[in-house]
Write a structure and sequence with these properties.
It is a single chain. Helix content is 59%, strand content 11%. The protein is built from four helices and three strands, in the order αβααββα. The chain has a three-stranded antiparallel beta sheet with strand order 1-3-2. β2 and β3 form a beta hairpin. It is elongated, with a radius of gyration of 23 Å.
Amino acid sequence: MQLLSSEVEQALINELSTKVFQTIEQMVKDSDPIPEVMNKVELGKFLNMANNTLDKYLIQEIPFIRVGTSKRYIKSEVIEFLKSKQETIL
């Protein structure tokens, strides 16, 4: 005995698939541990640098914005800064 018509069954499968993919997509977005705007601790984690090493690089003027008295680092600008400092070995 079939409880649902094949059309209803297919519609439910499609809806369920869509929900599963949306949930997975949201989980991937939420799993990024480094936000787009970072404080110094988050910047250190993002760059995988110890605090002292990070201080040396901060002297080289990694771009930042001020929020009150705090500095914030924008991930995309930090990446661009690092790319500009990249050296090519011939």
